[in-house]
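Minutes, project check-in
Item: structure for the 342-residue chain
Input as provided by the requester:
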Amino acid sequence: MVDMMYLVYAMTRREHDKAFTLMQTYLKKYFNTGQLRKDKYDKNARITNAFSEFGFQEIRLRAASWGHYSIEVRLRPKLTIDKDGYYCVTKVSEFEGVRNVFNYVLQDILSLKVPDFFDWTAKRIEAAVDIKLPEQLIPKYLSLFKKGFIPDYFWNNHKTKAYFSSITNCYLMSENKTVNWYNRYETLLIKEKESSKKFRDFTMTKGILRFETQVRDGKETVKELLSQERLKNEVIKFYKLIVGKGDYHTLKRAEQIINQRVSNFQKRRTLISLLKFIEHCGGITKAKEAYNNAGNAKKSADKFGKLLKKLRDLNINPVLIPEDWEINFIENLYAKIEEGFE
């Protein structure tokens, strides 16, 4: 499923100039304030938001000094087929309808000589799935996720560090991909307050935890990217990497499971000690680093990984529920995410 797309079609200068004339003529005739204007943040582009209510949040005509010309569309695909679907993601099965509206607006209304929707380059696409949960559990999930395994390529980005303390999201940015897991309702509340504008009603987003992967700087066409399996994989692979298998338990409950299912005393003690060590370090990432620094890095990493796997095989996530939460079990959301893409 998809939330937002940023689509690009490269043009010649002649095509660009023709498109500018056609668009500006139409916009001046039918819109009082929707004409193409210079973007104060992007000196090489002229922009219009005239068709935003139909999902075309921005249409840009770009003319760079080095000879690059293009038309670019920031698209909320759901709005092209459902004017009330502002807070919803778009299913792969709905994109034939998106295609029809996209082509109609650009080719028929604006009379632009541009390709079919599926043949545009998808420079950015946001694969996403919404999971319905009790509202009070969402901040707890986000707190637990942040104690999972977060690779260096996320930590090396300043935006990851800047947003890490947020209680409404788990935002991890790398060079060309961003993982954004967030409380849909609380995030919209914050955005509404910061914008000083009244948003359209978003009460339906209460209890929604969104899992989103933003893929940037793409060179593939829309047709090549719009695969259910591919979109699901963009979300699932980071969930598996960061969170992994196993439900969340308190230390007491995890100890009970280990004592019941592991017969060897030494193995029981090792697994329980590891859980305590991860909790002491504040999460898997720091625990792994400390574990590796204690001895031969490769051997330590292998051993650490094998111990984590043993815990997960017992359906125990290595990240523990804090005792003061007064909850002894929280379900892993892997299955719900997979089901959400069906």
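Outcome recorded: Residues 250 and 256 are 10 Å apart (CA to CA).
No further action items on this chain.
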